[in-house]
Amino acid sequence: SSRVLWTLAVTQLYLRHTTSFGPQQSVEWAYSFDLHCNGAFAMFVLMGVVHLLISPIAFGSGFFSLFLANSVWFAATAYYWYITFCGYLELPFLHSTEFFLLPIAGFALLYVVALITNLNFSILLASLLFGQ
Description:
Elements: H1 2-11, H2 29-58, H3 63-89, H4 102-116, H5 121-130
Helix pairs in contact: 1-2, 2-3, 3-4
C-alpha cells in the first residue's frame, strides 16, 4: 500500500513547477511508509481493539449490530485515508492531494449499500476467514 501511494505521489501529484531556489524536492519512500504505518496503526486500534470490544454486539442479527459493525469498518478505513491525506498535504511541492480523500467517498457509498442490503462486514469477514 505504501509503495502504491508513493508511486502515485511521485508520478502524478508532484508539482513540476520548480524554482531555481533551493534543492530539488521529492517524496521519499520512507515518508510514504511512515504515513502508511500511522494510518494502519489507527486502523488497527479501531479494528483490532474497538471491534474486539464490541464483537458480541457486532455479530448480532439486528439492525443495530449491522450499523455498529459497519460503522467501525467505515470509520477505520476513512481514518486511514484521512491520515494519509494529512501527511501528503504537508508537502508543499505536491498538488491535488485531495485525491487521497476520494477512497472515502467510495467507502461511504459501500457503507450505505451495505446498510441497505443488510450486509454485515464483520460476519462476512469471519465467514471468509473461518469458513462458516
